Structure formats: C-alpha cells, structure tokens
Amino acid sequence: MASSRFCEVQQAPPIEVFAVSKAFTDSTNEKKVNLSVGAYRTDEGKPWVLPVVRKVEQELAADNTLNHEYLPILGLEAFSTAAAKMLLGATHPAITGGRVTAVQTLSGTGGLRVAAEFLGRVLKYNTAYHSAPTWGNHNLIFKQAGFTNIAPYRYWDGGKRGLNFDGMIEDLSNAPENSVIILHACAHNPTGVDPTQEQWKKIADVIEKRKLFPLFDSAYQGFASGDLDNDAWAVRYFAERGFEMMGTQSFSKNFGLYNERIGNLMVVVKDTACIVPMKSQLTLLVRGSYSNPPCHGARIVSRVLNDPALFEEWKGCIRTMSGRIIEMRKGLRERLEKLGTPGTWDHITAQIGMFSFTGLTAAQAKHIADKYHIFLLSSGRINMCGITTGNIDHVAEAINDAVCNITN
Amino acid sequence: GSRRKVLLVHRNSKKTAHKINSSWWSGVEMGPPDAILGVTEAFKRDTNPKKMNLGVGAYRDDSGKPFVLPSVRKAEELILSQKLDKEYLPISGNAEFCKKAIGLALGDDHPALTDGLNVTVQGISGTGALRIGSTFLSKFFPGPKTVWLPAPTWGNHVPIFKHVNMDVQQYRYYDPNTCGFNFTGALEDIRKIPENSLIMLHACAHNPTGVDPKDEHWDELSKVIKERKLLPFFDMAYQGFASGDVAKDAYAVRKFLADGHKICLSQSFSKNMGLYGERAGAFSIICNDKDEAARVLSQVKILIRPLYSNPPLHGSRIVATILNTPELHSIWLNDVKGMADRIIAMRSKLKANLEKEGSVRNWAHITEQIGMFCFTGMTPQQVEKLTKEHSVYLTKDGRISVAGIASTNVDYLAHAMHQVTK
C-alpha cells in the first residue's frame, strides 16, 4: 500500500478574519451583519465598484491598441511614478531631487513582502518591530522573509482606548540600531488610532536618534479623512526630515480594487547612485517570486492618477466612502451614549478609517455573534463599513447588551 | 542589564559615526543583468531595418505583433457586461478557475478530481505557481531538500528554489550532439538520484531547448522515477501551444498519474491564452485522500498569505470564462492551434530555406523540436556573428524564439544562419 509523503502535514490553524467571514456567510439569520472583513460597503451593505473605475475599464476594453504583454519585472512605471507622487506630493523635495524610486507590487501585502525580503536578505537586517496590535499579516510576512527577531512596540491603550504614546516611545527607544519599524501611515489597522502630528514628530525623533529604519504601511490614503494630503502627512514629514525609508501603498481600499492586487513600494534614498543597484536587487527578488506583476489594476490606477479629470472624479469617490464611514461613527457613538451603555464611547469618533477597536472583549464579541448574528473579531475590532443606516440600531443594541451583561 | 546596555551603546556609537555619512543602501551590490532583457535592449538600440528579435518568449503573429486571442477578447466583453464586483478572492484564488485549470490538465472527469484528491490553488502565473510549490516543498517535503532539474532548464527555476533555501542538482537532458533528447543519459542520471527526492520535468515544449521526450520515452521515465520513489513536479507552461492539441501536450502528466504517481504541477496561461501580463497560473498537488488534501490546502494557504494575501482576479476570470463557456472554449482551441500551427510552419520554412541556401548541416532538429523555442546548435561565436553582422538577436546559448519568425523574414534568417555556420 502506498503511503504518502504528506501524511505528516498537520491542519493549519484557520486565519480568524476569514473564519469569521465564513461564519457570517453560513448564518441564515436575516438581520445578520458582517463587521469583520476589511472591505468597503455601501449604505445598502453592498460592495462598491467606483464609477470612475468602471468608466476606465470600459475605456481600456475599447482600446484596441492594448494587449496583454508582460509588464516589466518592476511593473508599470507610469503607475509607480504617479503613485509615489500621490503619497509624497508631486513637489516634495525628495521627488524633485530624484531621490525616490518606486516599483509596482502585488498590493500592500506584496509590497511589504518585497520590502521585507530586500531589508532582510540584501541589507541583512534581522529585527523588525510592529505595533501592538497590528494587522495580523505583518508578523507572518517578516517571518517568512527571514527576520529572526520580530517584536511589538506598545501602541493600543485599552484603558483610555487610545494611543499608549509613552509606551511606544519607550519601546522604540530600546530598539537596536537597524531595526525595521513598521508604522501605519494613517487609519491604523486594527485600532483606528493614529498619532497626532506632534506625536509623529517625537516618534521621528526617536527613530532618528536610535538609527532605526522606518517602513510605512499606507493602505488607506484618502480613505481615512477623505483628503489625500492629510492622510499622507506622516510619510511626507518623515521624508522631509531626510529619513531614508520605505513606504508600501495599497490601492485595494481607496480604489476599491481589492482583487486586482495593485500596490506600490516606494523607497526614499539619500544618494541617487544607490537607486540602480537597489532596483537590480529588487528585480532578482521579484523574478524568483512571480516574475512580473499583473497589468490590469496597474492600468486602471495609472489612467486615473495621470488624468486630471479622472483624478478629480476619483477624489470625489474617496470623499463619498470616507464620509459615509464618518457618518456611521457619529451615529454609533450617539446611539451608545443615548442607550447609556457603560463606559466612554468618544473613541468611536476619535478613531479614523475603516476599523474601530471598540474595546469589546472576546467574550462579548462571541455573545454578539451568537445572539445577534453580528460578526466581529475577537479583538473587538469592527469594520465600520459593515454598519449601515439599516442596521446601526441593531448593532448599537447588540453592543449595549454585551457590555451590560457579559463581563470577563 | 545596564552594563550590557553600555557596551551596546559603545559599539553602536562607532557604527553611528559611520552611519552619519553613509546611506543605508551603500552596501547594496549591483545584481547580475538579466540575459534575455539584455538581448531585447540591444535589439531596441539597433537601427538596421532588417533586425530580428528572437530573444523574448512571447508569441508574435505573422506581422511580428503581439496577438490578443479572439476567445480572450470575447471573454473580456462578456465579463465586462456582467458588471461583477472587485471583492477579494479567497487565498486559494478563483475557484472556477482552479477547477477548470486542473480539469484542462488532467481531463475534467479524471478520477483524481472527482475523488477530490487534488489541491489546486491560483498562482501568479507559472512563476508564482512554482514558487508556491517550492515554498510548500521546502517546508513539508520529507525527502532531501533538493530539486533535480533537467540540463538545461528555464533559468528562473534555480532562484525559485534557491530563494526558499533548497539545493538544485541536474540530470542530463539535452544532447548537443544530436540537438535532441539524451534518453540514455537522462535514465542513467535519474537512476542515481537518491530515493524519495524531488524531480522537475517540463511537461511539453521544453524551455529552452524545444526538445521533448517521445511518448515511449515518457513511459520509461515514469517507470524509473517510480522505482526511485521520486516526487515528480511538472512545469506545464505550454499546454496546447506545443502541438496544437491540449490532450497530446498533456500526455506525460496524464501518463504519470495513470502510473500511480502523486505529482505536483504548475500551469501557466501566459502563452496558450496570450495572457502574459495578467499572471494566470495554477499550482496543484495530487494527494492520497480528501483528508490529506484538506490539510495540505490549509498549509498552502498559510504560505500564500504572507506573499501577497490573495491572487489577482482579471486573468483568472478570463480563463475560467473561456473554459466554462462551450462556444468560447472551442474558439480558444482554434486560437491555440492557430498559434501552434504558425510556429510549426515557421520551423518547416526555416529548415527548408537553410537547405535551399545550400547548408550541408543537419537541421532536422528545427522541425523535430517543438514549442516556442529552438536550440539551433549554434555556438556563442556564431551567435555573436549573427547578431553583429546580421542584426539577429538571440541568447548566446543558440536559442531562438520561433514565435519571433515571420513569413516575411524567415528567408533572411535562413540566409544569415547559413552565413555564420557554413
């Protein structure tokens, strides 16, 4: 009897966000609400393909000069250049000084992975810090890229439901030189808590003093406040201060192009002579991983970013999405305060972006799922996009019930 | 404690002095240039109106232009009209695509599929599929962490395995004396591969040589590989594109399965559907039973998530639409046969013209080899002459991309090749 080579392979633990989404899908309750996965929803609770995206797709389809040839290994240059300008601002001294290079990546994840591989395998860094908590995949990415020392820096303060700024500064002050510090450019995932400008300045001070390497994860530019410049303030500030740094960009949320995997890895250098060797090394990393990136998403984003009228139209779409989220935040906080739900709820409107760390415990989250078929993560993270005018009362009621009746 | 901190600070302060003036990147060395890209770049700079680019491996029509398949255009129109959303795919990709892709390789009603023995996930085209495979094997393959590759093989196979810390070894494959398959050499070397090792095989249209084993050769290879208890990992990037017949091109894969091998398989739709830049590919493992398949799938997903979370939809949707829509499927079979036929015709013409030029060399391998590429047998010196004196661009191993030949320049090419080889 033939035995298998793979009979020792164990079942891997499920990834929570997908497991919770599945629980939502499997539920037959007609009032069910999905507050787990990070994708935008309209007030009807539906996915939203941005009108400007549909328009551009039609144009691309009608363009007979286009084909499906390979992109260069480092992607569509027109896209990467425009994306970098969007993040830093077209007139940023780093850009006008030629000290910025950028390559297309497989969305934000892909950008982080290429960055981690470069920092780990080419620069031989082995230590990375991420916020506590952070997006679950940060740790996995750096681990797979060969980092041997991955540690958290304090971030979320459960007591005051905001930023543990002193803890963050202390932990960064103790990080060894050359540590890669993963920073969320805006709309921190999962907490929704961002440092103030004054706090960013002090964070920059520590990073400079300790000779740490800043890596910005920018997955929500425009999506947080509705303003591209506002949401890029921290990245631009660091670049202006003369840091060498990397920034990964995702266009999944702000363009609604989740499944086209369109992202960018931007690098700011001091010496322009480094750019060519660096790109050659990035080329080797990409070639051994997936050869070259997909063109469809890149074409769409490039068209929009490079056409003034389409760009304006797109900015309108971002304001729509961020505006609706801000409305829901206001509405949820109002209802919880009106219900007299124990605790303070101003963090719901102080936080920004898609997610909110409600402060709900795992037990409370479970109760909400079991009784109300409202699905959120055990960390208490909710996706504000899952809330609509149609279900906001139901959600507030569920949270109120859990906080009142389920204690640890 | 604090003494250690002091020592660290002291050591760091020396580094600090150095860091103030240097950049993070000053130690980054220039990577080796890409050989094929180099050829294309030199071609672009050449001002000779008769220049030919026989370097890059993408299909060209008889006017030398990229070819968007009619079935692909139709599929795209259909997809656009459906106004579907852009939500994240699952980590494993587009389920319809995965089902139809492995169905194309094995036959839709293959027992392995109906019994649910396959793990099939979407990959970033063939490269991405291979990388999922190498990553999974580097972690879970119980045998030696070495892959045995044919000599020569596609250049990128090496880094795909080396990046996951696996070793690479070679078994004889190409016979430069015959410009054909070194059957005895291959068998000899494979018989010496340590038991329970991993062996990579090109399913059809071997890249870079164009040399494929005959069916009888595959039968024997299957036996020997079974005797050595090796795990076969098939790279199938040209199904349909080689002979024009999708079943014929899958002979080796299907034979190995019929012989009881539990294979790994990577598929690319870059060439056979002309979807190069859309990155449509699939990685499959045939497992022992459904339970094992579920466990293996769960681990494969864990490896994909830190690479890029989930794959791009556009290309996979086109493939799924074509394979799932009978009308489009038959148009596609026609499209791919058309491409294969044009390449076969160019091979014939090139050989015939060389003979017409008066060449006394044996050029039989031009028509015996199959697929995109042809190992002409020209030496690096002859290649250099071909490029310098005739503006024909190819890689120095003598490989030409037959897809780059058109009826309007096949005479020129034959003439040039004769000049440098007579």
Layout of strands and helices, then pairs:
The complex is a heterodimer of chains A (408) and B (422).
Chain A: H1 16-26, E1 33-34, H2 51-62, H3 77-88, H4 93-96, E2 100-106, H5 107-122, E3 127-132, H6 136-144, E4 149-154, E5 156-157, E6 162-163, H7 165-173, E7 180-184, H8 197-209, E8 213-218, H9 228-231, H10 233-240, E9 245-250, E10 262-268, H11 275-287, H12 296-306, H13 308-339, H14 347-350, E11 355-357, H15 362-372, E12 374-375, E13 381-383, H16 392-405
Parallel strand pairs in A: 1-12, 3-4, 3-7, 7-8, 8-9
Antiparallel strand pairs in A: 2-10, 5-6, 9-10, 11-13
Helix pairs in contact in A: 2-12, 3-12, 5-6, 5-11, 7-8, 8-10, 12-13, 13-16, 15-16
Chain B: H1 2-21, H2 35-45, E1 52-53, H3 70-82, H4 95-106, H5 111-114, E2 118-124, H6 125-140, E3 146-151, H7 157-162, E4 167-172, E5 174-175, E6 180-181, H8 183-192, E7 198-202, H9 215-227, E8 231-236, H10 246-249, H11 251-258, E9 264-268, E10 280-286, H12 290-308, H13 314-324, H14 326-356, H15 364-368, E11 373-375, H16 380-390, E12 392-393, E13 399-401, H17 410-421
Parallel strand pairs in B: 1-12, 3-4, 3-7, 7-8, 8-9
Antiparallel strand pairs in B: 2-10, 5-6, 9-10, 11-13
Helix pairs in contact in B: 3-13, 3-14, 4-13, 8-9, 9-11, 13-14, 14-17, 16-17
Organism (chain B): Petrolisthes cinctipes (Flat porcelain crab)
Catalytic activity (chain B): L-aspartate + 2-oxoglutarate = oxaloacetate + L-glutamate
InterPro entries (chain B): Aminotransferase_I/II_large, Asp_trans, NHTrfase_class1_PyrdxlP-BS, PyrdxlP-dep_Trfase, PyrdxlP-dep_Trfase_major, PyrdxlP-dep_Trfase_small
